[in-house]
């Protein structure tokens, strides 16, 4: 009896888990790498249709446009043509150049917008678990929803657990978005995991809302730090499987 009692005392207590939510960009897919390549393809398409300027020059100008007008601005290529000499596309309809760039950008989605290799394995691992699986993502509704479709991950998610800032009116810089998510899903923050790559918007704000945070080190923020530390830090989602097995007990949704 004493031996059995000692074994029980040494056994690590597991924490109840009701839900797991993911960031999308650079957490589930290499969005930064994709957008860079897609923009380069778009510039090359404009050159192929007659725009007479070096690729590097045009790409740098486009990057300035994006920085000045934001990545969600819908007329990047229009602004690009406004800021370069008109003789470089003389006798070419501007609409053709813009359409070529837009088509090339969207074609790049088929080639480069893929989930990270560990994503499919982890979602399949989670599938039988009786917990809520969802996303909390920053951006325009259709743009972010399209990523879920193209990445083939929508079917792994609960349809009522998809939260996009554009539809909610709360940015990920505000902890309220995480509180809002928990209230809508009727779950407790301390029993909810949030996985993201951004140390500020994914980790600091989710920590303030009381969620269990997991930082995955990839994407453009992997060398950045926020004000707080995630509860768990991983290089890939395979490592999270072990953490779930050791530290958590699933609670039926």
Observed structural traits:
single chain, 253 residues, alpha/beta, 11 helices, 49% helix
Number of strands: 8
**Global outline:** elongated
End-to-end distance: 37 Å
Q: Give the count of helical stretches.
A: 11
Low-confidence stretches: 1-11
Mean pLDDT equals: 93
How would you write the strand order of the largest sheet? 4-3-2-5-6-7
Radius of gyration: 22 Å
The structural class is alpha/beta
Largest sheet: 6 strands, parallel
Order of helices and strands: HEEHHHHHEHEHHEHEEHE
Beta percentage is 5-15%
Helix fraction bin? 40-55%
Describe this structure in words.
The chain has 253 residues and is of the alpha/beta class. Helix content is 49%, strand content 13%. It has eleven helices and eight strands. The N terminus is likely disordered.
Task: Give a quick precis of the structure.
The chain is α/β, with parallel strands linked by helices. The protein is 49% helix and 13% strand.
Indicate the topology.
Elements: H1 2-10, E1 15-17, E2 19-22, H2 31-48, H3 55-69, H4 76-82, H5 94-112, H6 117-126, E3 132-137, H7 141-150, E4 162-164, H8 165-168, H9 176-185, E5 192-196, H10 199-208, E6 212-216, E7 232-234, H11 237-247, E8 248-250
Parallel strand pairs: 1-8, 2-3, 2-5, 3-4, 5-6, 6-7
Helix pairs in contact: 2-3, 2-5, 3-4, 6-11
């Amino acid at each position: 009896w004493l031996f059995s009692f000692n074994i029980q005392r040494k056994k690590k207590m597991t924490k109840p888990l009701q839900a797991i939510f993911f960031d999308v960009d650079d957490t589930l897919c290499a969005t930064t790498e994709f957008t860079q390549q897609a923009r380069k393809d778009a510039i090359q398409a404009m050159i192929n249709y007659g725009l007479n300027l070096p690729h590097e020059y045009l790409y740098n100008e486009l990057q300035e446009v994006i920085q000045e007008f934001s990545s969600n601005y819908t007329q990047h290529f229009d602004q690009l043509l406004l800021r370069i000499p008109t003789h470089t596309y003389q006798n070419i309809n501007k609409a053709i150049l813009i359409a070529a760039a837009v088509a090339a950008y969207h074609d790049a989605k088929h080639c480069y917008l893929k989930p990270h290799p560990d994503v499919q394995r982890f979602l399949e691992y989670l599938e039988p678990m009786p917990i809520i699986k969802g996303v909390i993502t920053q951006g325009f509704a259709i743009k972010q929803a399209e990523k879920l479709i193209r990445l083939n991950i929508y079917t792994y998610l609960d349809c009522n657990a998809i939260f996009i800032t554009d539809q909610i009116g709360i940015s990920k810089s505000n902890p309220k978005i995480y509180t809002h998510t928990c209230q809508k899903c009727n779950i407790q923050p301390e029993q909810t995991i949030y996985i993201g790559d951004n140390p500020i918007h994914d980790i600091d704000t989710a920590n303030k809302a009381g969620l269990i945070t997991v930082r995955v080190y990839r994407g453009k923020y992997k060398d950045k730090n926020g004000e707080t530390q995630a509860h768990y830090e991983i290089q890939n989602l395979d490592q999270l499987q072990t953490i779930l097995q050791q530290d958590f007990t699933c609670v039926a949704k």
